Amino acid sequence: MQSQLPLYPPEASNFAPHVDALMIFITSVCVFFAAGITIAIIYFFFKYHRKQVDAIGVPIHGDPRLEAAWIIIPSILALAMFAWGAVVYVDYRHTPSDTLDIYVIGKQWMWKVQQPNGLKEINELHVPVGRNIRLILASEDVIHDFFVPAFRVKMDVIPGYNRYNTMWFRPTKAGRYHFFCSQYCGTNHALMGGWVTVMEPTEYAAWLSGSGAGGANPVAVGEKLFAEKACITCHLANGTGRAPSLNGLYGAQVLLAGGATVTADEAYIRESILQPNAKIVARYEPLMPPYQGQLTEEQVIALTEYIKSLRSQPVPVKGSGIAPVRGDETAPAPEKR
Ligand code: HEC
Ligand SMILES: [Cu+2]
Fold this sequence. Notes:
With about 325 residues, the chain is of the alpha+beta class. Among the domains are: about 100-210, Immunoglobulin-like (Sandwich), CATH 2.60.40.420; about 220-310, Cytochrome c-like domain (Cytochrome Bc1 Complex, Chain D, domain 2, Orthogonal Bundle). About 30% of the residues lie in helices and about 20% in strands. The chain has 7 helices and 12 strands. The strands form 3 sheets. A 5-stranded mixed beta sheet has the order 3-2-1-5-8, with no helix packed on it. A 5-stranded mixed beta sheet has the order 4-10-9-6-7, with helices on one face. A two-stranded antiparallel ribbon has the order 11-12. A hairpin with a 5-residue loop joins strand 2 (about 110-115) and strand 3. The longest helix is centred in the first third of the chain and has 32 residues, at about 15-45. It is elongated and about 100 Å long. Heme C binds next to helix 5, helix 6 and helix 7. Heme C (HEC) binds near residues 243 and 272.
């Protein structure tokens, strides 16, 4: 709630006031009933204790109205907690589309951050105030968990070829806030943390471009890797190669062998690179070699960012894995070759 109150960290994101209001509601309901019951017990203890050695109590007959009340009132309160919690949670799990995407990689025992322009940070995360931020999280070893108490957000960071976890928030107050690993991950787990710096947008832009050393632009790095790792020999932009064109792929629906479709998000692209055989694009042969173990996490990010940058490139009519838009019968399906 209040930063002066040591009980609560500062409220520095869009979620913080909602999470805190819900917490206060739940705590108040619990304290109210706990106090009421305790006081009643003490009061009845004195009021109804046996006054004569041979006293016999009067039998009690229940009152249905009282019974109904103690069923209905707590039920309504419990359902209110559930409904309120669901509203806050659904908001947190539905990422808006206009986010600033930042990669965060957990590794025993540090956090590696990559800004959209390729700038790299360690145990530091800079974000502009008022922007919707999406963190794309991956682990290089064991399960970690990224937790920013001042934002009231946390998310597990999980190893494996087929996942990126994501989470979003909108910082509402400039400042510096602690973040932590909140999943026990080995000897130096307790030291695995850092600081989020929330800056004014202009400051952030200046910091991003001014931070001297900077990082190579991930799209450019990815484009270079795409040639070096021979991706380009199969994936021709015009769709005439042995592999689907990656133009327009990001965000599209991909038709898989077997008829299912999948949204081509970061996790799908990552899986397609590391374990291509996990999901085969319809009408293509499973001849892409798995790149798991051959690329660093940074290289996967660079390739992913390069493929994302192709979203605005013209999609060849034939030779993409993208599912024809439902109801668009004029769009010819990609051919088997
Ligand atoms: C030997 C040829 C070959 C090479 C080399 C190759 N791929 Fe592929 N790739 C394919 C084929 C064939 C498919 C479609 C079948 C499938 O899903 O496995 C595919 C599918 C994909 C997909 C999913 C495409 C879609 O439309 O859903 C992505 C993403 C991808 N490859 C990226 C890469 C990257 C990045 C590299 C280089 C690191 C690479 N590929 C190297 C043949 C290749
Ligand atoms: Cu950790």
